Amino acid sequence: MDITAHNTVFVPGATSGIGLELALALRAEGNTVVIGGRRADLLESIAAEHPDIGTVVVDTTDPASVEAAAEDVLSRYPELNVLIAMAGIMRVEDWHRPETFLDSAESVITTNVLGPIRLIAAFVEHFRRRPDATIVTVSSGLAFTPLAATPSYNASKAAVHQLSESLRLQLADTSVSVVEIVPPAVRTSLLPGQESSEFAMPLDEYVSEVVELMRTRPNAKEILVERVELLRHAEARGDYADVVAAINAADPHGT
Ligand SMILES: NC(=O)c1ccc[n+]([C@@H]2O[C@H](COP(=O)([O-])OP(=O)(O)OC[C@H]3O[C@@H](n4cnc5c(N)ncnc54)[C@H](OP(=O)(O)O)[C@@H]3O)[C@@H](O)[C@H]2O)c1
User: Fold this and answer.
1) pLDDT tens by residue, 53-98
2) What single-letter DSSP state applies at residue 110?
3) For position 99, what pLDDT does the model report?
4) Domain range summary for the chain, segments of one domain joined by +
5) Contact at 8 Å (CB) between 149 and 125?
6) What's the distance, CA 39 to chain centroid?
7) Element of type H or E holding 71
8) Ligand 1 site-directed mutation target among 55, 60, 86, most atoms within 8 Å of CB
9) Distance between CA 6 and CA 31 in Å, rounded?
10) What's residue 255's pLDDT?
11) In the chain, % of residues over pLDDT 70
12) How far is the CA of 89 from the centre of ligand 1 (A)?
């Protein structure tokens, strides 16, 4: 994805955190940006502060909401050529006790796996008609090296990784590229306390590195900042067991 090419980008999951920071950075690079999320009050205040950013209320756990948002975005921005499926949630779960984790697991899988699938389904035909389009997925270092505290989250992000790999193969004969962003722990409100976690990367530093990677490696399949390499390539390096032990000892709550 060439971020200097004046793309039109939709980021569902940009009322806060990585999505918002990345949306603002892409806009600063000259792209047209539309953001989405459930919190209409945040969308309103972001639009008031940045009047050139489009907004749409969307709940990616609701198929009708995704369909309505896609229709709305495509009618206002027919030149749309980038989807960044950012919306996601993370939950700490205790799998010793099903009554405590089952609801959480279902929400995590619905949001983190079905959400991107529904979004991609809503945009892929439009993208295939564009001369150059990109589907950006968002996995996690935890897709590759698990944190004991968040089993459904780790599994959901491993699913996003494989979905990205498979889609890239299927869409190889089209104008649509698939790029996977693989964040390390970043200081956002994804989990309580994470915004000030010493284990997490400052949000502005993370997004600057992401934008720099996108700018310098426009053909990259994965956006891997230096901090995520430890988790991403542990198995290939042969130190997977050590890295699993280290991240779980250092950060038992996933922050
Ligand atoms: N921060 C990290 O350490 C980290 C690491 C690896 C991967 N990630 C991934 O990065 C992505 C962004 O997370 P973040 O860290 O920036 O956390 P965040 O600040 O909590 O942002 C999550 C975003 O997703 C949106 N969202 C959640 N559920 C949604 C739904 N059902 N429908 C529409 N939007 C929904 C939220 O908006 P509303 O609440 O307004 O709907 C919010 O804008 C997530 O996919 C996360 O898994 C984060």
Assistant:
1) 999 999 999 999 999 999 999 999 999 999 999 999 999 999 998 8
2) I
3) 86
4) 8-250
5) no
6) 17
7) helix 63-76
8) 86
9) 4
10) 47
11) 98
12) 5
pLDDT band of 39, cuts 50, 70, 90: very high
**Ligand 1 centroid vs 86 CA: distance in angstroms?**
6
Nearest to 200 by CA among 228, 239, 219: 228
Give the pocket of ligand 1 (CB within 6 Å): 12-19, 37-39, 42, 58-61, 86-90, 111, 138, 140, 183, 185-186, 188-190, 200
Task: Give 96's DSSP letter.
Answer: T
Whole-number Å distance between alpha carbons of 188 and 201: 9
The reported pLDDT for the residue numbered 98 is 83
What are the backbone dihedrals phi and psi of residue 139, each rounded to the nearest 5 degrees, phi first? Answer: -100, -130
Give pLDDT, residue 253.
53
Q: Which of 20-29, 30-39, 96-105, 187-196 has the lowest mean pLDDT?
A: 96-105
Q: Specify whether the CB–CB gap between 234 and 240 falls below 8 A.
A: yes
| Residue 42 half-sphere exposure toward CB, CA atoms < 13 A | 14
Token readout for 254 is: 């996933």
Homologous superfamily of 8-250 in CATH? NAD(P)-binding Rossmann-like Domain (3.40.50.720)
CB proximity list for 211: less than 8 A, separation 6 or greater = 3, 22, 25, 26, 29
- Judge whether 206 counts as a catalytic residue: no
For the record, the structure tokens of 81 come out as 């050529």
> Which residue is it, tokens 């980021």?
11
Per-residue confidence (pLDDT) for residue 250, from 0 to 100 = 74
